[in-house]
Structure formats: C-alpha cells, structure tokens
Here is the input.
Amino acid sequence: MHPHLHTKDNGGCEEIMNALEECHARGFLWKSMGMCSDVKTQVNKCLRRERLERTAHNREVAKAKKEKINAIFAEIDANS
Here is the structure.
C-alpha cells in the first residue's frame, strides 16, 4: 500500500505519478506483464525522497522547539 499520491506533500513527484496512471490506463495486460514496473519503481523512489525531506524538516523544527522549551525552563530554574 502507498499513501495517497496526489497531495501537497508529493508535488515533486506529480510528473512520474501521471506517467504511472497513464501506464495503468493502458489496461490489465499491460500492468500484469510488468510494463509499468519501472515507472512504479520511480514513483516509489520519488515518494521516499519526498518523505525523507519532510521528516528531516520536521526533525529540525522539533529540535528548535525543544531547544526553545529547554531555554525557557532553564531561565525559570535560574530565577527561582
């Protein structure tokens, strides 16, 4: 299973996802013979790259929030 493909988070993969949809639209035999496998692999790699970029960004945001909270608590401890 994969996440919903057409979301704001996966904008960089739009072209590849459209190519996969076009390949799947060619019919069942086209898909079952593995003719879409290369495009599917490209979609998986692109989605992974997008997810890794998103998690790295989220990690940096969380780190900054944690440092801010720790600074506030250190200030409270120093003043009490």
